[in-house]
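Supplementary Methods. Inverse-folding protocol.

Structures were first reduced to a discrete structure-token string of length 426. This string, shown here, constituted the complete conditioning input.
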């Protein structure tokens, strides 16, 4: 069920095609293990000579069906699920970087990813240089070194809502012989498919719109199959030279376009084990079945909220790329002509104190550490998600201390705006 179907059909049906007498709904294979008849059959699985299930830490049929749906939606050749967006981002980099390597990353990314890359991965000997994604090509190119192995950015950054110029980033990455990895969590493949603009690997926190109901933390990595690892074999020995932990198998030779995902599964998931539970994958799949219906409603409501805020004189500033005056409006029109996402950020006149009072006065919108689900919610990054960052780091990441991140749900827009209005007047 690949590319001949439109996204709406893929959301509902891709990944699981039951045969005669099988369940219509994707079953939860709640089993750690799978049965074989001979010792030889099992041995062939361990040697990656045959494809099959043997232990859920490596692969599980429920997870694989959901990963296949996400791969189809993104237009990739293969995908894998992970236990969280954090583990997806970690694996995406660690699959091609080892101690002594370096990668380049947009400075405007999710706070958790910023810490993972800037602090934790440094402890593993993997170095990162953060660059301003709006800088000219030459400036970003100057951050590359001989040991640079990837370029990373977010399609729409969380929480600063900057839109990535994916074609520019792809051009920079490819001119240095490395893949572009894009975190496409906010627009989802319904609103943007980064592979169509030159990205090579896409990552997701499926915790957000994909699940959509705030039930399950999860992540995904999708491979376009387009990056030619063998053309830069000296940069990617993990993919292009024999893996001693798999009897000298070479991923690019054995798996072609599936080399990257196969290595991430067979090696990283085997050794690090950040699997998504089949139960969570099942819930994620139910969410994906309505992704194409929810995204337009999120965008329509967010547009109404952004327009309301931009006309209110208690509001100091509003960021939403759907607003014609927004700094990223043109880029958004190019990459996401049907809408971006449901997240709007703004600041109130009077600054930080007034912002906090406003948030405490909201009734319909809840203060939660979450974003991008069906229920409208709100968060103050400087006091919540990003409180581990210094003021200097906050400013570097483009986060003003008064920034309110307002995640517009799929309720009625008039009710959401009425809630904002009463809180502004409180
Ligand atoms: C939430 C988020 C993550 C981290 O995902 P978890 O599922 O919370 O681990 C990564 N990237 C972006 C853009 C996010 O919004």
């Amino acid at each position: 069920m690949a590319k001949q179907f439109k996204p709406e059909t893929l959301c509902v049906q891709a990944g699981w095609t039951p045969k005669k007498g099988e369940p219509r709904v994707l079953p939860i294979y709640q089993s750690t293990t799978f049965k074989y008849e001979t010792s030889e059959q099992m041995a062939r699985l361990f040697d990656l000579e045959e494809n099959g299930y043997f232990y859920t830490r490596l692969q599980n049929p429920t997870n694989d069906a959901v990963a296949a749906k996400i791969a189809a939606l993104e237009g990739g050749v293969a995908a894998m699920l992970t236990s969280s967006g954090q583990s997806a981002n970690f694996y995406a980099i660690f699959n091609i970087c080892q101690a002594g390597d370096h990668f380049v990353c947009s400075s405007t990314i999710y706070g958790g990813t910023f810490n993972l890359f800037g602090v934790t991965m440094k402890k593993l000997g993997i170095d990162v240089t953060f660059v301003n994604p709006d800088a000219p090509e030459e400036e970003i190119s100057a951050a590359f070194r001989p040991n640079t192995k990837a370029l990373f950015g977010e399609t729409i950054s969380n929480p600063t809502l900057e839109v990535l110029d994916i074609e520019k980033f792809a051009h920079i990455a490819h001119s240095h012989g490395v893949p572009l990895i894009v975190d496409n969590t906010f627009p989802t493949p319904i609103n943007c498919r980064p592979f169509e603009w030159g990205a090579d690997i896409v990552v997701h926190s499926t915790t957000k719109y994909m699940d959509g109901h705030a039930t399950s933390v999860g992540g995904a990595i999708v491979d376009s199959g387009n990056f030619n690892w063998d053309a830069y074999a000296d940069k990617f020995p993990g993919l292009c030279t024999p893996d001693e932990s798999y009897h000298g198998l070479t991923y690019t030779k054995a798996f072609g376009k599936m080399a990257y995902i196969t290595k991430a599964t067979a090696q990283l998931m085997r050794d690090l084990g950040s699997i998504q539970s089949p139960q969570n994958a099942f819930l994620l799949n139910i969410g994906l079945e309505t992704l194409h219906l929810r995204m337009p409603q999120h965008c329509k409501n967010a547009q109404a909220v952004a327009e309301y805020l931009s006309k209110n004189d208690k509001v100091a500033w509003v960021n939403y790329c759907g607003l014609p005056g927004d700094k990223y409006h043109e880029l958004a029109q190019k990459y996401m002509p049907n809408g971006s996402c449901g997240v709007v950020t703004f600041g109130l006149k009077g600054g930080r104190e007034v912002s906090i009072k406003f948030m405490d006065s909201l009734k319909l919108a809840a203060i939660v550490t979450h974003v991008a689900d069906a229920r409208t919610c709100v968060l103050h990054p400087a006091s919540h998600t990003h409180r581990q960052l210094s003021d200097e780091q906050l400013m570097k990441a483009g986060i003003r201390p008064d920034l309110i991140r307002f995640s517009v749900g799929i309720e009625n827009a008039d009710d959401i705006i009425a809630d904002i209005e009463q809180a502004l007047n409180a």
